[in-house]
Design goal:
The protein has 118 residues and is an alpha+beta fold. It has helices spanning 14-34, 97-108, and strands at 39-42, 56-63, 66-73.
């Protein structure tokens, strides 16, 4: 059985890419807070259940383009130290990975008054 974290595209392993995602998201969460967008982190989903049964947390941002979120293992918690902790995450709006990508692209692309394009 192959360790999926060590699978590479020839440039980066899955483990490296997930670490980059974690770091970029922590940076983005701080920037979103500075911009006045609500961002929170929680060990529990909106229904009160621990994320993935425990050992994981969720970070949720409410952007002008919609809700975006990611889950991380316990070890990433301190990187989101500026993000307020809440008892339970906000109610999930049903977004999927395609929705998140579209919402982020829209925010970056200068569409609307709250965009971050330069």
């Amino acid at each position: 059985m192959t360790d999926t974290g060590s699978i590479s595209d020839g440039f980066h392993t899955f483990d490296e890419l997930y670490e980059f995602r974690l770091l970029y998201h922590a940076y983005a969460a701080r920037a979103w807070l500075d911009a006045g967008y609500p961002v929170v982190r929680s060990w529990k989903h909106h229904d009160g259940e621990p994320c993935f049964g425990g050992g994981w947390f969720i970070v949720v941002a409410q952007l002008p383009t919609g809700q975006v979120s990611n889950h991380y293992r316990t070890g990433g918690w301190s990187l989101f130290g500026d993000v307020p902790e809440v008892e339970t995450a906000p109610v999930w709006d049903g977004h999927n990975t395609a929705d998140v990508a579209r919402r982020l692209r829209t925010l970056l692309g200068g569409e609307g008054p709250a965009s971050v394009s330069r």
